[in-house]
């Protein structure tokens, strides 16, 4: 029970929310800062490595330049000796090389003589091991001629690989008769490069254009080969050192050696196709980063523990007035509106909420009384609407038209309790007056204006016989009734003279009735005119047509053709005409049933939007 109460309390939820919304973002922020710090430090390390390598390049350029100038000076001396003696004296050259061969950046100075077979034979050298050695297997005369700056890396008969700086010696015919050169062993050069700056556990290597290590301060790596890969293989071949590009660092790589990760960067060795490779262990820059992260983690743990305890205790106290408010709400929820909330010294916003709740309970009591009164009013209003519906139904003609050879059928369906549509007929001797009308709007207002028009029409039809005169007089009276209300009624008026079967008709802004002849073709009873109540008029357009036996006349309001389905598509006059033209029926009642069926299938119980009235006559 205690466990359930603890974990279900607001204090626990506040504690849990604090962890989720405060501590968790701090943890993510710490991780982000760690990642950002890692990237920044990594870039700093590689920036320092690149600066280191630029210093190495500058050193090599100085060595190459100074030694090349030195060799050019020797070249001038050899040329001078040639001019004095007629040929290069090997003894003088030997003394010259040995006197200057102690240059600290050099491994050896040498002179290669081109013999009759175009072989390069070392005849003089400051290094005894070079003497009488054929250098052609390492670099021949054609290679010397092909290179531009006379500086290259090649195999060395003594040091494995060396950086060679050469100056060709030519005779008066500009033929190369010898080569003055200097060699710097790559093993010596990498040790020299390693002293340019001090980096923790840095290794310097020189690799050829295929990635093979020619010399290195880490001797075990010599003869191995760097290869670039997209992912590390668990067990790469021993002769290969796979390296992978670091995505966030320009010209930066990482590789594993003896299970430890190292960083690598490279730069071109001046005047050669080789590269200088610098590597350092990845752990050399992470110590401070780990220390900073551990300090931040300790701070987060302290915030979590101290903040959790403090917020838990304070929340328990602050929730006391909330619990009281909960009890009051419980009683009110059970229907007892007499309980009220009492202020608490540490209630703060909850006191305000409690006061508002007290006001709400008072308002609720008042509202309940208002609802009771409103319900009684609505019940009385519904009864009045029902009475209005019954009155409207009593005013409209019922049954069928009993007039000579005319058959009839009627469908009338209001959209609300009372309708703005109406239909009517009146017999006067051998004339049958027919009216179908649609008042603007629906419900009570439309109903009142429509039946005002019906009463006026009936009065005029009783007095006058001419359909035009009836229409003009009725509109004049109706305009006086509507005044500036903007209300109007569309209507179609017809007078059928039985002896001659002549139909006179006037359209006051209404839908055109449809005439289906007994022979099967369709006509629309079209004539122009404005709705009743829009404005006064002195003349109307009236047309006449002779009817024949088995002719059907379909009068309707726009509620029929404007009926909508769930896709908001209209039933349309086209669909109505298609039913009238193609369906099989004999009586007006049969046709109304067919039309109602098609409307039901089309709308599929969609709410009726407008009043629907259909009046069908058969001659």
Average pLDDT value?
A: 84
The strands making up the biggest β-sheet line up spatially as 7-6-12-11-10-9-8
Strand content: 15-25%
How many domains comprise the coordinates?
3
Structural class: alpha+beta
Overall geometry? elongated
Distance between the termini: 88 Å
* Biggest β-sheet description: 7 strands, mixed
* Helix content percent band: 40-55%
CATH class of the largest domain: Alpha Beta
What fold name goes in the CATH topology slot of the largest domain? Beta-Lactamase
What's the total number of strands? 22
Name of the CATH homologous superfamily of the largest domain: PAS domain
The stretches of 5 or more residues where confidence is low (pLDDT under 50) are: none
Account of the protein in words:
The chain is an alpha+beta fold. It folds into three domains: 1-318, Beta-Lactamase (2-Layer Sandwich), CATH 3.30.450.20; 321-395, no CATH class; 399-618, PPM-type phosphatase domain (Phosphatase 2c, domain 1), CATH 3.60.40.10. It has 13 helices and 22 strands. It has helices at residues 2-7, 10-85, 90-100, 141-146, 186-193, 287-318, 320-333, 349-395, 443-463, 467-482, 558-561, 573-582, 588-603; strands at 108-114, 120-125, 151-156, 160-170, 176-185, 203-207, 213-216, 225-228, 240-245, 253-257, 260-268, 275-281, 407-413, 421-428, 431-439, 489-497, 502-508, 514-516, 522-524, 543-546, 552-556, 612-618. The protein has a seven-stranded mixed sheet with strand order 7-6-12-11-10-9-8. A hairpin with a 3-residue loop joins β3 (151-156) and β4. α2 packs antiparallel against α6. The radius of gyration is 56 Å and the shape is elongated. The model has no long low-confidence stretch (mean pLDDT 84).
């Amino acid at each position: 029970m205690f466990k359930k109460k603890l974990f279900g309390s607001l204090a626990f939820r506040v504690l849990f929310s604090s962890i989720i919304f405060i501590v968790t973002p701090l943890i993510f922020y710490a991780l982000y800062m760690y990642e950002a710090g890692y990237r920044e430090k990594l870039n700093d390390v590689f920036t320092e490595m690149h600066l280191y390598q630029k210093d190495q390049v500058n050193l090599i350029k100085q060595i190459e330049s100074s030694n090349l100038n030195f060799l050019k000076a020797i070249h001038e001396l050899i040329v001078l000796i040639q001019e004095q003696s007629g040929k290069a004296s090997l003894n003088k050259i030997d003394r010259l090389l040995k006197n200057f061969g102690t240059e600290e950046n050099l491994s050896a100075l040498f002179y290669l003589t081109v013999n009759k077979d175009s072989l390069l034979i070392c005849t003089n050298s400051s290094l005894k091991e070079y003497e009488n050695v054929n250098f052609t297997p390492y670099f021949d005369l054609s290679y010397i001629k092909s290179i531009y700056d006379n500086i290259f890396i090649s195999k060395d008969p003594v040091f494995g690989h060396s950086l060679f700086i050469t100056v060709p010696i030519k005779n008066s015919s500009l033929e190369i008769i010898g080569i003055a050169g200097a060699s710097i062993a790559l093993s010596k050069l990498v040790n020299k490069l390693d002293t340019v700056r001090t980096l923790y556990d840095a290794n310097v290597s020189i690799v050829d254009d295929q990635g093979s290590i020619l010399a290195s301060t880490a001797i075990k790596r010599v003869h191995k080969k760097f290869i670039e890969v997209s992912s590390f293989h668990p067990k790469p071949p021993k002769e290969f050192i796979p390296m992978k590009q670091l995505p966030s660092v320009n010209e930066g790589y990482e590789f594993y050696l003896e299970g430890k990760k190292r960083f690598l960067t490279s730069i071109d060795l001046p005047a050669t196709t080789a590269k200088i490779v610098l590597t350092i262990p990845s752990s050399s820059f992470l110590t401070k980063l780990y220390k900073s992260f551990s300090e931040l983690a300790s701070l987060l743990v302290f915030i979590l523990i101290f903040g959790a305890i403090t917020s838990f205790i304070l929340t328990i106290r602050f929730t006391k007035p909330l619990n009281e408010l909960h009890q009051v709400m419980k009683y009110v929820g059970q229907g007892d509106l007499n309980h009220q909330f009492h202020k608490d010294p540490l209630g703060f916003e909850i006191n305000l909420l409690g006061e508002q709740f007290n006001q709400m309970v008072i308002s609720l009591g008042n509202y309940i009384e208002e609802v009771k009164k409103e319900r009684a009013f609505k019940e009385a209003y519904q009864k009045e609407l029902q009475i209005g519906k019954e009155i409207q139904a009593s005013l409209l003609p019922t049954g069928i038209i009993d007039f000579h050879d005319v058959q009839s059928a009627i469908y009338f369906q209001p959209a609300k309790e009372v309708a703005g549509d109406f239909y009517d007929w009146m017999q006067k001797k051998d004339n049958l007056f027919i009216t179908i009308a649609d008042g603007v709007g629906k419900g009570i207002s439309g109903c009142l204006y429509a039946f005002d028009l019906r009463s006026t029409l009936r009065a005029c039809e009783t007095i006058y016989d001419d359909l035009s005169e009836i229409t003009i007089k009725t509109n004049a009276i109706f305009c006086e009734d509507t005044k500036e209300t903007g209300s109007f009624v569309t209507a179609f008026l017809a007078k059928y003279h039985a002896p001659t079967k002549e139909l006179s008709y006037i359209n006051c802004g209404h839908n055109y009735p449809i005439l289906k002849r007994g022979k099967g073709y369709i006509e629309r009873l079209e004539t122009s005119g404005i709705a009743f109540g829009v404005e006064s008029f002195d003349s109307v357009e009236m047309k006449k047509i002779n009817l024949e036996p088995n002719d059907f006349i379909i009068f309707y309001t726009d509620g029929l053709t404007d009926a909508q389905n769930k896709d908001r598509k209209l039933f349309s006059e086209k669909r109505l005409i298609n039913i009238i033209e193609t369906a099989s029926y004999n009586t007006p009642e049969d046709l109304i049933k067919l039309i109602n069926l098609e409307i039901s299938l089309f709308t599929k119980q969609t709410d009726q939007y407008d009043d629907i009235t259909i009046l069908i006559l058969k001659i």
